[in-house]
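Suppose you are handed only two things: the residues of a chain and a line of SMILES describing NAP. What would the bound structure be? This form records exactly that question and the answer produced for it, so the two can be stored side by side and reused later without any lookup.

QUESTION INPUTS
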Amino acid sequence: MRKILLTGKNGQIGWELQRTLAPLGEVTAVDRREMDLADPDSMRKVIREVRPDLIVNAAAYTAVDKAESEPDLAMAVNGIAPGIMAEEAKRLNATMIHYSTDYVFDGTKKTPYSEEDSPNPLNVYGKTKLAGERAVQAGGASYLILRTSWVYAARGRNFLLTILKLARERSELKIVDDQVGAPTWSRLLAEVTSQIVAQLFSPRCRTATPMADVSGIYHAVSAGSTSWHGFAAKILEGIPGRTIKKPLRLIPIPTSDYPLPAARPGNSCLSSEKLMRTFGTAFPSWEASLALCLDEITGGSAA
Ligand SMILES: NC(=O)c1ccc[n+]([C@@H]2O[C@H](COP(=O)([O-])OP(=O)(O)OC[C@H]3O[C@@H](n4cnc5c(N)ncnc54)[C@H](OP(=O)(O)O)[C@@H]3O)[C@@H](O)[C@H]2O)c1
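ANSWER OUTPUT
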């Protein structure tokens, strides 16, 4: 059995990874208490004890606005810790899978970003995540960096659950309509990650040293795109009338009408073509994924 160390086990992606990675190896899943990414000694101790063949880092400082006032902590967790994991992975001849974000881009491109496009983060969170990508690359281990976007899940803190809550409390919602991206369900990202891991672990893998061939950055997002307003509209459409007690008016607004501490890219669209080409895995449309997640939340009543 290969040994897999999974960080961030209670996060949106980590939670799902606990299940999807389980058939692929002996998974040691840790939370912040067991391995604090702001504490390099704690990290090294856990990694050296577990001696994993694969580290999957689903932990991160993800509070995008709060990061503006906590840049040092955000940098320690997002920028420095992934590099330490990659160095430890190198010592163990292990592979590392790390998640990054559309927020490494400034959003000025008119078409979906490819892995070749130059990052230019607009906010502290994006800067720390970019630093993390570079630290993983410099660590010397084989690695996959999966950049994703607009992650939601049936649990945790995310846009989907916020809209469902507000829909019960308000009669009107103003939602930003000039930021475009691909809402991505954490479960599908975990499943795609695990399909890739299965390929990497497979004895029938097409080359003797497959990781050397495929190490790199990959975009991993739902197919298609929408605005936050479009996402909210689809969420509300997917819910039968009984969930929302009163009529809800959704009002599209520009980003300038909803100022936040951290600037966001206008275009967050990423092309997942390289992932498809390399591993043969593709995400369904964001609408189809959302329907599946809503179905789960409402216990099969959201079709
Ligand atoms: N959410 C998005 O929209 C989005 C978009 C693009 C990319 N991503 C990337 O996807 C990955 C996973 O995101 P997610 O949405 O699953 O995030 P999440 O739900 O916020 O989970 C992050 C996890 O990291 C843990 N964590 C935070 N600080 C830690 C520390 N110092 N030591 C150990 N663990 C710590 C958190 O633990 P606590 O519960 O104890 O805080 C939490 O379980 C991250 O790399 C993120 O940057 C996310």
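WHAT STANDS OUT: The mean pLDDT is 92. The CA atoms of residues 35 and 43 lie 6 Å apart.
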